[in-house]
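I hope you will forgive my troubling you with a question about protein structure. I should value your view on which stretches of the chain appear to form regular backbone elements. Here, with my thanks, is the record as I have it:
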Amino acid sequence: PRPRPPPPRPPAPRSTSSNSMSSAAASSPSDDLEELRLQLEGARLEATRERARSVAYANEIRSMKEAALTMHQRVEQEEENATNQLMKKLDKMSSEKREMLLRVEQEEEFLTNSLQKRLDRLAREKADLESQLDREHEQVSGDLERRLNALSEERARLHTEKVELERQLEAEQEYIVNKLQKQTSGLAKEKEVLKAEREDLRRQVETLMSDKVRLGQDKITLENTMEAEEESIVNRLQTQILELYQKNKFLERRLEASSKTPSESETSEDEAGGGREQQRERRAGRM
């Protein structure tokens, strides 16, 4: 019996690169690069599977050719055996032989045509897969290049913004430094003025303190002088009062003595002398 050709295998599902490209447009640059890398790896795996499938098809075709060759050899051997066995029936088997040869040729032609068609179909599928892989590779490369260009433009824009921000920051820092320098100069001047005023106040305070000390000393001196003068005046007045009092007593005693005896007059004179002595002692004690 003639071996039947194996049914063709269904083509492997193609990678949905368009969906992945559309989803990658909304992701960040790092996610886009990772997704593109995964898509390239998927495309490479798909290409590897297609190559493996082509190799399997080629091995299958080679096996079918070997089977056809084996079958052809077997048919020839059977024909030879049949010819050897049926030499006597040459007329009868000649027609069968011609029919058999015709059938074998037809089968060979059919097998050859079928295998050629399958080879052509596999070649077309391989070419289609290669062209599809090339298109997808070009599309992925184009998308990657566009995204890289977009990233480069974004990087340039960010660099420009960074330079502008640095310039503005430098201008603001310069303005703040100038303002602080002006304020520092003004504060230094105010500090010098306050220092001069403080020195003036300190000198005024020192002058007032020295005047206060001097006035205190003058006050003490004046009080001591006034106290001494007051004491001297009081002493003089007391002395004068005492002398007047003694003179008055002496006159009273003389008046009384004029009417008394001479002994009593002497006694009064002694008492008057004792009074004078007591007056001198009081005066010395006060001094």
Residues 222 and 228 are 10 Å apart (CA to CA). The two ends are 175 Å apart (CA to CA).
